[in-house]
Amino acid sequence: MYSRKIPEDLDCGIVITMRILGGKWKACILDGIHKGIKRPSDLHRTISDASPRVINMQLRELETAGAIAKKIYPGLPLKVEYNLTELGISLLPVIDK
Questions:
Q1: What is the third-level CATH fold of 13-95?
Q2: Burial of 54 (0-12, 13-18, 19+ CB in 10 A)
Q3: DSSP secondary structure code for residue 40 in this structure
Q4: Which of 8, 26, 35, 66 is found 20 to 30 A from 17 (Cα to Cα)?
Q5: Which among 12, 35, 50 has a CA at the least distance from the CA of 95?
């Protein structure tokens, strides 16, 4: 497994912000979820320039960072929705136009 040779300075707010928002499409994903797009397939249609694989990877990274929460509904077909957490809501002024 990969381990960094130079440890990150997690006391610096810029490092933490770049770690969360560092992906090319993460700001668009957060903005889309804020505007009401909650399903992954809707995000894929909205952000058509990005491949579904990239969007799914960045959704996972945002979930790991705690910016979004994933809710899986039981039953078939499987239904997944994403919502912003308090951390995700606090990032909205940073990505606001």
A1: Arc Repressor Mutant, subunit A (1.10.10)
A2: middle
A3: H
A4: 35
A5: 35
